[in-house]
User: Which sequence fits this backbone?
């Protein structure tokens, strides 16, 4: 290793690359395979072609080591489940009959067999399939995929480094299998799992892998001493193996904290650390433990999950500091590039002056390569790159897009009083009751009604110019008329316009706000073949005009019942977009909140008495480390209150969140100071109602009585039973009756029947009061 102790050996690498291809070729091939239009051989050929193209691009960009095994037909956690032989019992027959079909059955389920549960990968918008483990789980190594991919890359003459989910993270992200006690701790399986990893590592070594990367992002979350001990044991045991490649243990998305000394002391040859965002704290922590003598450090200095150009000079200075702390310092992105789109060059509609502020996977790869060159040979070797980079950063900093004096002055003038409603909740509730005259157990929905094929076709027709704006808007109005008349006929109490004009609850607003950018090809994998195109919060946010008022007002003109206005809240607007990295998130949230505040006020002026501000993302953006949460919740709840604080006391503010586990943020939910909250509850049999009550939540709440995630129609009796369960926790004066979430993914027949049953249930239970 002595030849590697100088910066001259600095190498460039990444941990993973977008999987779908520039034209989403993988998505198309997989979906074609599901429909029987593409056979397995053709799917495999498409996949192999994409892997090859990616590796060649990475090598051509100047990477010294390419990742392998990061490719996936669906999800890398699911691939790990296959690799360690933890296929759930209910899927074993299908996997034995046909591994590829069995794999997709685990991911998507079949007519008879439920899929694995899906959940968010840390605080990203990527979703993984949750392994199901129990005391009887017997692991069995299957290294075929990993071995095949490292061979493919080596055959291209590239230095290839397999990337695996590490054993500790794998277990920490698992859950007890169905039928296994909820108290079962998957980490107790570590000793059974390590021999399987040992076997895979030996196979990879035999296939020619010099280094193998084990990803342990779960170690950037707060971990117990027992979990840290398990980590120490895992890497002591893997380190002690005789027949193994060199090991690089990677972490990302946050700082390692207490896990850093554990890994630093372990007998592995390298650590890969994130040095961006809150993970920048790794730098001081590394110095505090005395660096990584004798080890390789891979420094993630290029943000792998956001889309801004790197500050190359700043990164070089970080890298320079790190040189004193490890035997060898290599350069990488902070995490897999899976979380960003592929290439800014495909974006023809973005102003070139702004496009140069952006870096997608391809541009980030070039940044990593340039930084490694700069580190190895000095800044003169990358003088041209530095000049271009400096100019791009200067252009961004000085642009009127990022500095709108009017927006800044308004945000700076926000006072505590501006984030408070005019009267406290109990007085508002009385005023609203008098104004709205609703029955006990009022019925409503969450906002969207079925997004039918006709609506999507109308939007496509508008985009392609087959129909004009007028024709399109008439179709939207026709849909609103249908939705209103259905709700009146069914007997709902607070109506909605149905959101037919919205393609997506964030994009719809992003398109109308100044400072937001849309991409044409900026696809990012959300789960499986589902890709999303998050808009970009690029500049200061302003609202040129009302965004929703005419649709809500039109709906209200058709009925005497209250129509609820419908907005996406500031936290969710940030969570489902790429955010600015040149100012604190709270500043951006405040700008978005002020734009939404104007919309609230305009809705109110147009006669809207009930306004819902959806915040389904409030909990999902919760920082990974508990220490960072109070600061986050402070700006997040402030942004919500700033959005709604200008509403008159008689205006009833609703909010909505789509999850059932929120015990840790009940205080924050109360801090929103909304009048009514609707939540998901049908699947957990009203557990949330009890949780709210247990925390003394004083406001009105609508725990869902209709699970909208499946086409199944709940009977009126079933909905009534859930309502009665809700009444066991929340008094009738404060209980609302609604579905779990919006109905946009449902079809009309089941929506009609379910809402009729929901209204019938409310009537039945009212009569019992
Ligand atoms: N108002 C939105 C809808 O009904 C809320 C969606 C959500 O919570 N994800 O579609
Ligand atoms: Zn929802």
Assistant:
């Amino acid at each position: 290793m002595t030849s590697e102790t100088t910066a001259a050996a600095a190498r460039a690498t990444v941990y993973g690359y977008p999987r779908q291809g520039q034209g989403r070729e993988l998505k198309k091939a997989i979906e074609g395979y599901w429909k029987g239009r593409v056979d397995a051989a053709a799917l495999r050929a498409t996949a192999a072609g994409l892997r090859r193209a990616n590796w060649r691009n990475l090598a051509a960009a100047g990477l010294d080591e390419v990742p392998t095994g990061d490719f996936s037909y669906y999800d890398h956690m699911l691939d790990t489940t296959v690799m360690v032989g933890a296929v759930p019992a209910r899927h074993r027959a299908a996997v034995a009959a046909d591994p590829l079909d069995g794999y997709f059955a685990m991911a998507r389920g079949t007519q008879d067999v439920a899929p694995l549960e899906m959940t968010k990968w840390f605080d990203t918008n990527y979703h993984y399939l949750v392994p199901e483990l129990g005391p009887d789980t017997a692991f069995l190594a299957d290294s075929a995929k990993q071995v095949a991919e490292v061979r493919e890359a080596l055959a291209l003459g590239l230095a290839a480094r397999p990337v695996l989910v590490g054993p500790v993270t794998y277990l920490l992200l698992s859950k007890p299998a169905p039928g296994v006690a909820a108290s079962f701790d998957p980490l107790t399986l570590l000793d059974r799992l390590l021999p399987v990893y040992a076997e895979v590592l030996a196979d990879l070594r035999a296939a020619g892998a010099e280094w193998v990367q084990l990803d342990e992002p779960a170690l950037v979350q707060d971990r117990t001493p027992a979990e840290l001990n398990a980590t120490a044991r895992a890497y002591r045991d893997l380190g002690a193996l005789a027949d193994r490649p060199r090991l690089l243990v990677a972490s990302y998305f946050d700082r390692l904290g207490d896990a850093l000394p554990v890994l630093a002391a372990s007998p592995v040859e390298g650590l890969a650390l994130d040095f961006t965002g809150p993970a920048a704290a790794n730098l001081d922590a590394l110095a505090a433990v005395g660096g990584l003598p004798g080890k390789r450090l891979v420094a993630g200095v290029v943000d792998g999950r956001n889309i801004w150009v790197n500050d190359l000079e700043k990164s070089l200075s970080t890298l320079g500091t790190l040189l004193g702390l490890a035997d060898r310092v290599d350069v990488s992105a902070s995490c897999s590039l899976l979380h960003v789109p592929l290439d800014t060059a495909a974006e023809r509609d973005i102003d070139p002056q702004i496009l140069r502020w952006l870096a997608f996977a391809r541009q980030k790869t070039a940044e990593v390569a340039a930084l490694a060159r700069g580190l190895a040979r000095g800044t003169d070797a990358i003088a041209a790159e530095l000049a271009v980079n400096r100019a791009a950063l200067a252009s961004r900093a000085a642009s009127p897009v990022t500095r709108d004096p009017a927006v800044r002055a308004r945000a700076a003038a926000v006072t505590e009083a501006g984030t408070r409603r005019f009267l406290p909740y109990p007085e508002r509730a009385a005023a609203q009751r008098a104004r709205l005259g609703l029955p006990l157990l009022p019925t409503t929905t969450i906002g969207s009604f079925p997004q039918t094929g006709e609506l999507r076709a109308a939007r496509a027709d508008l985009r392609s110019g087959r129909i004009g704006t007028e024709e399109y808007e008439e179709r939207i109005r026709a849909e609103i008329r249908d939705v209103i008349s259905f709700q009146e006929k069914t007997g709902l109490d607070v109506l909605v316009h149905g959101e037919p004009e919205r393609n997506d609850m964030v994009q719809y607003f992003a398109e109308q706000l100044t400072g937001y950018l849309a991409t044409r090809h900026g696809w990012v994998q959300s789960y499986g073949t589902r890709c999303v195109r998050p808009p970009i919060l690029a500049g200061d946010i302003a609202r040129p005009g009302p965004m929703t008022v005419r649709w809500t007002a039109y709906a209200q003109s058709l009925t005497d019942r209250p129509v609820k206005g419908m907005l996406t809240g500031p936290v969710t607007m940030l969570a489902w977009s790429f955010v600015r990295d040149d100012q604190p998130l709270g500043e951006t949230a405040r700008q978005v909140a002020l734009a939404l505040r104007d919309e609230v006020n305009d809705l109110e002026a147009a006669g809207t008495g009930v306004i819902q501000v959806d915040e389904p993302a409030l909990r999902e953006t919760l920082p990974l480390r508990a220490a960072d949460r109070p600061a986050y919740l402070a700006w997040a709840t402030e942004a919500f209150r700033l959005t709604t604080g200008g509403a008159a006391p008689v205006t009833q503010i609703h909010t909505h969140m789509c999850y059932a586990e929120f015990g840790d943020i009940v205080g924050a939910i109360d801090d929103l100071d909304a009048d009514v909250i609707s939540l998901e509850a049908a699947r957990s049999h009203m557990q949330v109602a009890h949780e709210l009550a247990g925390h003394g939540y004083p406001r009105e709440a609508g725990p869902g009585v209709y699970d909208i995630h499946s086409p199944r129609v709940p009977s009126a009796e079933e909905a009534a039973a859930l309502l009665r369960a809700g009444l066991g926790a929340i008094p009738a004066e404060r209980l609302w009756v609604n579905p779990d979430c919006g109905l946009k993914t449902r079809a009309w027949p089941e929506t009609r029947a379910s809402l009729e049953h929901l209204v019938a249930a409310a009537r039945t239970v009212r009569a019992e009061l």
